[in-house]
Amino acid sequence: MFELEEELRKLPDQPGVYIMHDAGDAIIYVGKALSLRKRVRQYFQPSHDEGIKKKQMVEHIARFEYIVTDSELEALVLECNLIKEHRPKYNTMLRDDKTYPYIRVTVGEDYPRILFSRQIKKDHSRYFGPYTSAGAVKDTIELLNKVYKIRTCSRKLPKDMKKERPCLNYHIHQCMAPCQGLIGKEDYRRQVDRALEFLNGDYAPILRELTEQMNAASEALEFEKAIEYRELLESVKQVAQKQKITHMDGEDKDIIAIANDDTDAVVQVFFIRGGKIIGRDHFHVRVGTEEEKGKILTDFVKQFYSGTPFIPKEIMLQEPIEDIAVLEEWLSGRKGRKVTIRIPQKGLKERLVELAAKNAELVLSQDKEKIKREEGRTIGAVKEIARLLGMAEIHRMEAYDISNINGFETVGSMIVYEKGKPKRSDYRKFKLRTVTGPDDYASMHEVLTRRFLHGIQEQQELAEKKLAEECGSFSRFPDLILMDGGRGQVNICLAVLEELGLQIPVCGMVKDDFHRTRGLYFHNEEIPIDRHGEGFKLITRIQDEAHRFAIEYHRSLRSKSQVHSVLDDIEGIGPTRRKALMRRYQSLENIRNASVEELAQTESMNIQAAEKVYRFFHTE
To answer: Which CATH topology does 253-268+282-375 take?
Structure first.
């Protein structure tokens, strides 16, 4: 039994992290303290006021626990880790879990490559970023590979040099084939150095060079080559224009500002790398009523920089925040060099913070409208369906579909919608095991039986392990099952549920003569539905998604079964020999007309294999 007064007396006067639990033992808040005794006691003092959100949180606390640390810095690190792991209800939480793209240059290799990466590793490579657009990063990498003719293969050079023929990039003049030794290590490295200069923002040399090459090709009447140089030149200019000079000091900075109302907040971040704005991004934050900007920014800085691999030298904030000294120490430790947090008061830095704040306000106002529209399409649509069916609420819906062509490779699909949105991680595919031929009812019976049997078994396993809070995609049963059809499909589903002792509402989607949904079949009656309502639109989306998912799976199985050669049926002829034969003879007819001796001369073939091929084509 948890005795509050007794536990409060036991609190140590030491730094640490405190963890609040509700009556269901769920973690609802995690915080850090320089003194656990002073900080935790504050929550339960009648005179203490930290706003409505904290007051509501205290009302739900059933017990608390704590972890003592050696310093406030250790408490900060532990707090960040626990918040990221448990995502407590009353902590200020980032709604976005983003990873940013980087450009990685593998300068530690003898023949470096330019690659896309979403994390920074200590691997002797140079990293540029983070960038906010993965598409822009890929375009830049493609441009650099074209302009400087950097290799894109994964061969280990010089170890694998001349082991294989050069790839297509060499033949279309987009690689200098270091894999064949056609360019020396020093010359290749000079090209890589020029690409590094480009990534550092020095565009003038390549712009000048491409202009000269374009003019020279034009004067020589080599117009196709001139057009190629012109297109490269335009690509370089587009990349260069995206980089706007903001500072001449060439430092890495993040500029952070916030806009908030009673329930929502948007944090805007400008990324400055090497003195240039390389991008910006915004983050939605879950906040409580009357929560101050400084507190929101404090929590944002902790969560954001505990998850991003790159930390700039300087962080400029719109408002003063708590624990600046501890945060600077923590960030400096993560970066390996001094990191400074500033709240600028004048000059260009202040104007940049103001610009970030204006952007945050704009995003907040625009997204409020967008969120309202989205809620109408999702949660509002689910509520509309629930009202139509007379259900109290619907959280999770599952829909099923069968796909086959004349009974060939029959497959089933299960799709899941939660709160009106697709939950693709819970989608599942079924390849039919017991049904042959085009029997949709029998196929659906097998799919549903396998799905719910698997769910029952998964629930039993979790119960035995006492992992009630964990749920797999099968163990979590739906509030409503949607069947793509009327009475027949619904009855199949109800029969399966009855066999397994389950009670889940089942609704059929009834179609008219033009295969359009005209109503819902529920509890043995057809319920008309407003075709202009959001509920109808959501049901249509669910139908289309179940159909799409089943067809894609069926198509993939058909593709695999059709990628089959007659040569695969010959004993002793595997993929290597099959490719060698087709490479040399180009067609099955030419292989059929070849003699045993000619077949044996093919790469990877021997006389025994040649005889098997010859007999296969010449035995009646």
So the answer is: Nucleotidyltransferase; domain 5 (3.30.420)
